[in-house]
Design a protein that fits this description.
Elements: E1 2-7, E2 12-17, E3 20-21, H1 35-38, H2 42-50, E4 56-61, H3 63-75, E5 79-84, H4 92-104, H5 114-124, H6 140-148, H7 156-161
Parallel strand pairs: 1-4, 4-5
Antiparallel strand pairs: 1-2, 2-3
Protein name: Small GTP-binding protein domain protein
Organism: Ligilactobacillus animalis
């Protein structure tokens, strides 16, 4: 069984073949790179390591990272299987809130200011500002309309069609 374990938080990739780590000179020894930095070369790495693409790779990691791997693997007809990684704490927001409250009770007065509390509450909020900056006619309005899935901003493309 070919197994890839990827931890995006620590930038760690472990690859094993039939239960053994890959050789030192294997291209699967990607170092501390993000999966997205090397995953496009997966078909090449598989071909070099196995002399075939007729393998199945079991991936252990986050769903988003698996989707990136699967897209490349599917294009190269490499079979994949997904084992979801434990994401750790069940309620991360509550854990972050508890850490913040502990900081507020700590010895540093600068971390107890109303500005720090206001900024923390703002960071927890689901609403946030997005700035779209570019020169004229580069698609800013088209991008905004697309993201919002409605026509909020007039676009040059629409003006030319009318």
């Amino acid at each position: 069984m070919q197994f890839i374990k990827y931890n995006p938080y620590r930038l760690q990739t472990e690859v094993t073949i039939d239960g053994s780590p890959v050789k030192q000179n294997s291209k699967f020894n990607v170092g501390e790179k993000r999966l997205q930095e090397w995953i496009n070369k997966l078909p090449e790495y598989v071909r070099e390591e196995f002399n075939t693409r007729d393998v199945e790779i079991v991936f252990y990691g986050t769903k988003l990272d698996y989707e990136d791997l699967k897209e490349i693997a599917d294009e190269a007809n490499i079979k994949t299987k997904y084992l979801p990684a434990k994401e750790g704490m069940e309620n991360k927001e509550a854990a972050i809130q508890a850490v913040f409250e502990k900081i507020q009770k700590g010895p540093f007065d600068a971390l107890k200011s109303s500005k720090v509390t206001r900024d923390f509450e703002k960071a927890k909020n689901n609403e946030f500002e997005v700035n779209v900056v570019a020169t004229m006619s580069l698609g800013k309005s088209t991008l905004i309309n697309s993201l919002m899935r409605q026509k909020l901003m007039p676009t040059a493309l629409l003006n030319h069609l009318i």
